[in-house]
Amino acid sequence: QLLNRLDDLLQEAAAVDPKVQEEPRAFDKQAKTAVLMVNGFNGLGLHTLFNVLRFFGKEFRNFVFLEIGVVDAGNFKGIADMQDLKTSVDKDVQRYVSFMRGKGYYAEGLAFIGTDVINGARAMIPEILKRHPNAVFFGGQLVFPKETFANRWLHNYTVFTMQRIFYREGIPFVILPIRV
């Protein structure tokens, strides 16, 4: 029930047709870039995005959405399943891009398919930083009113591991709390 409340924002964002290709705003190399780690087009990702806008205002004019689709050997039976995952990840990222372009920002999406979110993110860092030297990475972390064993087990703390890895590399990574 709590997680369903997060997805209320999807109705607003769903008004943007992902098939409509807006004229991309020019990338401003001098401006800061917010790189959002997302795990689908969902309430967590949208709340993270809206918190970046709320807390940092117009500080960021460029947005990059990075999603790593995780291959689970138990669920994938062949090439068709891999292609379905790739299509789904690409579609999710494009919805974020379309949404932000519709708001007048520069936006692009990156999708990566792998067996591990952490290694996938690490593989993408050099490419992102080369194109976006003023990048700050963001991730959202669910905060439940009462923490339980089930919450900790079901909603892992991958974002904290990523933050530690990025920090060791000298890359800013901000975790935004998303209350449910």
Short synopsis of the structure:
This protein is α/β, with parallel strands linked by helices and 180 residues long. It has helices at 2-6, 10-14, 43-56, 79-102, 117-131, 149-154, 158-168; strands at 32-38, 60-70, 106-114, 135-143, 173-179.
Question: How would you characterize this protein structure?
Answer:
The chain is of the alpha/beta class. The protein has helices at residues 2-6, 10-14, 43-56, 79-102, 117-131, 149-154, 158-168, and strands at residues 32-38, 60-70, 106-114, 135-143, 173-179. It has a 5-stranded parallel β-sheet with strand order 3-2-1-4-5, sandwiched between helices. The radius of gyration is 16 Å and the shape is globular.
Strand content: 15-25%
Q: What's the mean pLDDT score?
A: 83
How many angstroms separate the termini? 9 Å
| Low-pLDDT stretches | none
- Radius of gyration based on Cα positions: 16 Å
Query: How many helices does DSSP assign?
Result: 7
Tally of extended strands? 5
Tertiary shape: globular
Q: Name the helix and strand elements from N-terminus to C-terminus, one letter apiece.
A: HHEHEHEHEHHE
Q: What's the helical proportion of residues?
A: 40-55%
Q: Major sheet: size, sense and barrel closure?
A: 5 strands, parallel
Strand order of the largest sheet: 3-2-1-4-5
Instruction: Specify the structural class.
Output: alpha/beta
